Sequence to fold (153 residues):
Amino acid sequence: MASNIYATKCPCCGRSAIEDYYYKTQEQYTFCMRCGYYYSKTIEKYTKDDIEYKEEKSEGHGMFTLVNKDGSRKRVILDCSPTNTQLEELKAKFMDNNVNQERSYLVTYENGVFTILFGDPPDNFHLSFEEYRKKMFAKYGVPDYEFMVPIEE
Ligand SMILES: [Zn+2]
Fold:
């Protein structure tokens, strides 16, 4: 598919999100690995002389990233702040024997504030999009077009 996938500034938390843009159809997916913000614009239907799009959007409330010892990973987007019961469940998953605790983490995002509940997010997690972009350009070189920001966890 003719798509462009780059890092972009998350409209919710201002850190680095992933944007997948299909320039031919103008469909778009944005997903923030930091706060869990999600946006999609997809073609709903083709009418006689137009295209109708469907938009879905969800504000970020946090993210649970589980990395297993075999390298497989699972991401759970939090739709709202977890209740105590949910926290216990997430913690139990986090403490599982198959889980690599050093690479897994649970972060909530409420009212513009990130709270790390357990684990240790990667360095890039903490950077604003501008800082992240600077770091990526320094590491990989400045791309032909400014928007072509590499994606790194
Ligand atoms: Zn975000």
Summary: The beta strands are 3-9, 16-22, 27-32, 38-46, 51-58, 62-67, 73-77, 105-110, 113-119. The pocket of zinc ion is lined by residues 10, 12-13, 15, 17, 32, 34-35, 37, 60 (CB under 6 Å).
